[in-house]
């Protein structure tokens, strides 16, 4: 079997269902035996996704076309070492590598009639615990920036009624006028601390005592602000404080970890095992959150998870993408020994996202069944695919 064609399919969904920025970049890898596989770049939110499609095609044309899709290790190492820029890293090159790698694993699974987690050597596990993510955007059909504590409580109640025993919320992200908050770095004001406390008390009240809360900070805060937030909220039973500060060097993060009264989680903007190692060595992460669509794909995510396992650190894949990103994360999480909890993002509830694929991956009662269809088991909706922009490279001759 050999790779004969690589497609990039792009879906611009920004503005739909209240999601401000939402741009999907998919890879579809074809072979001479008629088996194809899908992958996704983990850059759907924020700015920069449009740069990933050309990178998928460039890497694919130079390092993947004509090669055996079963040779995932050989292809991954070739992309890393011979692209030049992957030796330095970043989301565009590693996101493109991730999409290609996932598509190759999908091909392997489809060709062998097995789900990816079985190819990785794991039994199909019991349904995975998951949490309702990003309650500051509400928990329903549309994204709404929540301001009043009472609205945070309502969102928490809805999630709890659906069976979730864990939620994640960023209590700083939304300003009093409903816009995205600015000037969050540095020492937080008394008013900001009061607002954080009021919103998080409301979440705790809505959940009741028998559920966990993950405090999300999105790296908006400095180390001082993150520590203030942790101290203000520590009595509310915080499971983890996520992304307390920036990733531009580990010193600020490590300082927070040394002083924080609550455990620390991070990882969605770290790439490859080499990016995670300094934090693990510093013992400044209590849970890692690699995005399989950014760290280097399924092949590399598994290495990262096993590296973390040697440090006795658990794993929760970061998931903020299409249903394909959910499928990839579930296959990865099902295969690793140190899985902790699965992220179910509020964007995953939205119709614009769910309509991209035939399969509608949703948890039940706060637990996620791991799919057992061959490969990743995902199929583009024909109507959604018609609306996508497509480019490709193919094997000459």
- SS content category: alpha/beta
Proportion of residues in helical segments: 25-40%
Alpha carbon gap, first and last residue: 16 Å
Shape: globular
Number of domains: 2
Average pLDDT reading: 97
Strand content: 15-25%
Query: Helical segment tally?
Result: 13
**CATH classification class of the largest domain:** Alpha Beta
Order of helices and strands: EEEHHHHEHEHEHEHEHEHEHEHEHE
List key phrases describing it:
single chain, globular, about 400 residues, alpha/beta, TIM Barrel, 13 strands, 13 helices, Enolase-like, domain 1
What is this entry, summarized?
This protein is an alpha/beta fold. It folds into two domains: about 5-115 and about 380-395, Enolase-like, domain 1; about 120-370, Enolase-like C-terminal domain (TIM Barrel, Alpha-Beta Barrel), CATH 3.20.20.
């Amino acid at each position: 079997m050999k790779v004969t064609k690589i497609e990039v399919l792009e879906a611009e969904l920004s503005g739909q269902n209240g999601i401000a920025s939402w741009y999907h970049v998919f890879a579809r890898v074809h072979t001479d035996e008629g088996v194809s596989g899908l992958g996704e770049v983990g850059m759907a939110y924020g700015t920069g996704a449009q740069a990933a499609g050309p990178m998928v095609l460039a890497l694919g044309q130079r390092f993947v076309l004509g090669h055996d899709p079963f040779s995932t290790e050989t292809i991954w190492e070739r992309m890393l070492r011979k692209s030049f820029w992957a030796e330095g890293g970043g989301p565009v090159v590693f996101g493109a590598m991730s999409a290609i790698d996932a598509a190759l694993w999908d091909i392997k699974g489809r060709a062998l009639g097995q789900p990816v987690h079985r190819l990785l050597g794991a039994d199909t596990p019991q349904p995975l615990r998951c949490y309702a993510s990003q309650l500051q955007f509400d928990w329903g059909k549309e994204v709404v920036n929540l301001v009043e504590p009472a609205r945070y409580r309502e969102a928490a109640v809805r999630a709890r009624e659906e069976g979730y025993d864990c939620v994640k919320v960023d209590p700083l992200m939304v300003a009093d006028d409903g816009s995205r908050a600015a000037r969050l770095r540095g020492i937080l004001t008394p008013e900001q601390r009061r607002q954080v406390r009021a919103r998080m008390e409301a979440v705790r009240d809505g959940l009741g005592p028998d559920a966990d809360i993950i405090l999300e900070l999105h790296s908006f805060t400095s180390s001082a602000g993150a520590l203030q937030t942790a101290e203000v909220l520590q009595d509310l039973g915080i499971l983890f404080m996520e992304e307390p500060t920036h990733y531009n060097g580990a010193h600020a993060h490590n300082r927070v970890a040394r002083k924080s009264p609550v455990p620390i989680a991070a990882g969605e903007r770290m790439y490859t095992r080499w990016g995670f190692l300094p934090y693990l060595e510093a013992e400044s992460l209590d849970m890692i959150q690699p995005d399989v669509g950014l760290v280097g794909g399924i092949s590399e995510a598994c290495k990262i998870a096993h590296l973390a396992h040697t440090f006795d650190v658990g794993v929760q894949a970061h998931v903020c993408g299409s249903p394909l990103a959910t499928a990839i994360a579930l296959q990865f999480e099902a295969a690793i020994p140190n899985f902790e909890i699965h992220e179910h993002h509020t964007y995953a509830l939205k119709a614009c996202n769910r309509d991209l694929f035939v399969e509608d991956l949703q948890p039940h009662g706060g637990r996620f069944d791991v799919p057992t269809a061959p490969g990743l088991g995902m199929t583009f909706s024909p109507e959604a695919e018609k609306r996508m922009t497509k480019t490709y490279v193919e094997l000459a001759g």
